[in-house]
């Protein structure tokens, strides 16, 4: 019985080591020329909120923690990043048209207000991503401002 | 003399009431007329059942309510039209599960084009009106 348990344990360890060789590609894009933080003039507090709560999955530049590189955590992180970027990639902000931008800004405020974003699993591991009511209000005020600014610029 | 003033009083009242009535029907009519006939037909067929104020589908009406669309802020309207175009284009709406039971509500390519072009035009008009 003891031997079987030993064998089982060894198998688990081998499996764990083996899966380390199957790593997803890292989300570490180099180009930042279209990144929202580069294109727009964003107030410091909003910048911090975006960095803490959004950009890990909604940009080409994920800020990985040490354990994100270990499978199977790395697989889960990769899945979230792929899905997040599919919905919205703020590294491509400069490439979007005004309709996309206004729609996106509106949706950012809405998702955060309805507490659908950031997702719970992310907030659990990233304490700073937990947004206070005040931060949410600031974010929404900013999205509205930026939209109105863009509209004014567009028609000038 | 008394009768004369009574009649003119009634006339005035009648005029007042009819002006108010015309003005208020104008207001509700305007919202309905905003939708071109062909667009309205498609929305009635495939969208309105879930996306209206009295819908029991909370998520659907929270995302988009055709009855109150006209009352939204300009930014929210632009966003809504952009979103309509997107979900129709990407075949995300009507949802697949819904279509399993009601395949006749599926949008044809022509209907999709009509909706997409309409949404785009509405968004453009709003953006350029500012």
What can you see in these coordinates?
- The complex is a heterodimer of chains A (156) and B (130).
- Chain A has 156 residues and is mostly helical.
- Chain A has one domain (2-154).
- Chain A has seven helices and no strands.
- Chain A has helices at residues 2-19, 36-39, 44-53, 73-87, 98-113, 120-125, 133-154.
- Chain B has 130 residues and is mostly helical.
- Chain B has two domains: 1-33; 36-129, no CATH class.
- In chain B, 70% of the residues lie in helices and 0% in strands.
- Chain B contains six helices and no strands.
- In chain B, helix 2 crosses helix 6 and helix 4 runs antiparallel to helix 6 (109-129).
- The radius of gyration of chain B is 21 Å and the shape is elongated.
- The N and C termini of chain B lie far apart (56 Å).
- The relative contact order of chain B is 0.10.
- The chains are: A mainly alpha (156), B mainly alpha (130).
- At the A-B interface, helix 5 and helix 7 of A face helix 4 and helix 6 of B.
Number of DSSP helical runs of chain A: 7
Low-confidence stretches of chain A: none
Order of helices and strands of chain A: HHHHHHH
Total count of strands of chain A: 0
Mean pLDDT of chain A: 91
Chain pair sharing the greatest interface: A-B, 16 and 15 residues
